[in-house]
Amino acid sequence: MQEPNRVFTDEVGREFHYMFFDNGCSRVAVHFSAFFGDWGDSPKFRATFGGYFHRMKMLSSDTSRDWLFVCDAYGADKNGTYYIGKHSDRFVDRAIDAILDEVGVGSKYAPENTVMIGSSMGATAALRYGIQRNSRGIIAISPHIDLDISAKFQGRERHVDWVLDGGDTQSADNFPTTREIRHLVTNAIETEGVLPHLFLQSCRDDAGVHFEQVLPLVRSWKRVGSVFLDERRWGGHTSEYATRAVLLDVISRLEAGDAPTIRKYKWSREFRPYGLSQGAALRMKSLVGLLVRKIRR
User: Fold this and answer.
1) Residue 61 structural domain
2) Which of 139, 141, 283 has its CA nearest to residue 209?
3) What is the CA radius of gyration of the chain?
4) Number of Cβ atoms within 10 Å of the Cβ of 41
5) How far is the C-alpha of 53 from the C-alpha of 34, rounded, in Å?
6) Across the beta sheet with 197-203, what order do the strands follow?
7) Up-side HSE of residue 162: CA atoms within 13 Å toward CB?
8) How many Cα atoms are found within 13 Å in the side-chain-facing hemisphere of 30?
9) How much is the pTM?
């Protein structure tokens, strides 16, 4: 295997690092990193590739497909622009498109052999490029879909403001940028009549995301595409439930055109999160106990 670390340099010298694991397969999974959390907001992470590659350690050891990991290290605090760049200069978007082309997404890897994956901001990118490139499938975990809503309810005002170059994050005038995903879905419905298979994982208590963004997307997507919603009751804005076992199973099923087994993801031990918080574990135990009592009745 070639050294996975690669660099794309744009027309003005900006560098975009990415990791490509070439296993000699005809299928590829593209993973878009999310914002840094508090854990990653430190010099040692910022000095490495100008960002970090979310889930690379978790997924890159799988050799049943090739893997591309990208990150967005620009924007406010150099912590992401939703893979856009600036409102008037989509330089990150252009760079990611160039990286996808460079790796062979759409040529070496046919659209039906491509799956796009991401969480939060990374899910915004997975949705955008998955729709634009007519990928086989898209996996979106706790996705930010409408950036104006994420700015208001998810604490991303500064990051969306940077993308808009000081524009009003709540203005309808900026919807072409802040609600781009919604526009792409509408356009696909009205013109092409087809959308990729979509797997969504989201928590009902994720304020500003689940009810405000995820459920409206599900309703729209269902008009012409298949949607599989793994809805969790608790967890907030988390990817805790998106374990390696869940993601690899979903990818394989989307590639094959099969429905993900959502019930198993929720209850089967092999798909269970390893690091459930004590509160989450207690809630799960309480819920299981309630179900057992109902069955015994």
Assistant:
1) 5-296
2) 141
3) 19
4) 12
5) 9
6) 5-9, 15-21, 66-70, 28-32, 114-119, 137-141, 197-203, 227-232
7) 17
8) 33
9) 0.89
Residue 215 C-alpha from the chain's centroid: 16
Q: Record the tokens describing residue 57, joined without a space.
A: 């350690």
Note the residue count of the chain.
297
Backbone angles phi, psi at 53, to 5 degrees: -115, 100
Distances (CA, A) of 185 to 92, 188, 210: 21, 5, 18
Contacts of 136 (CB under 8 A, 6+ apart): 111, 112, 113, 114, 115, 196, 197, 254, 255
- Give the pLDDT of the chain (297 residues) as one tens digit per residue: 567 999 999 999 999 999 999 999 999 999 999 997 643 444 454 454 445 799 999 999 999 999 999 999 999 988 899 999 998 899 999 999 999 999 999 999 999 999 999 999 999 999 999 999 999 999 999 999 999 999 999 999 999 999 999 999 999 999 999 999 999 999 999 997 899 999 999 999 999 999 999 999 999 999 999 999 999 999 999 989 999 999 999 999 999 999 999 999 999 999 998 755 444 554 554 455 555 445 545
CATH for 110: 3.40.50.1820
The total domain count for the chain is 1
Residue type, 115: V
> Rounded CA gap, 97 and 132, in Å?
10
First to last CA, the chain: 58
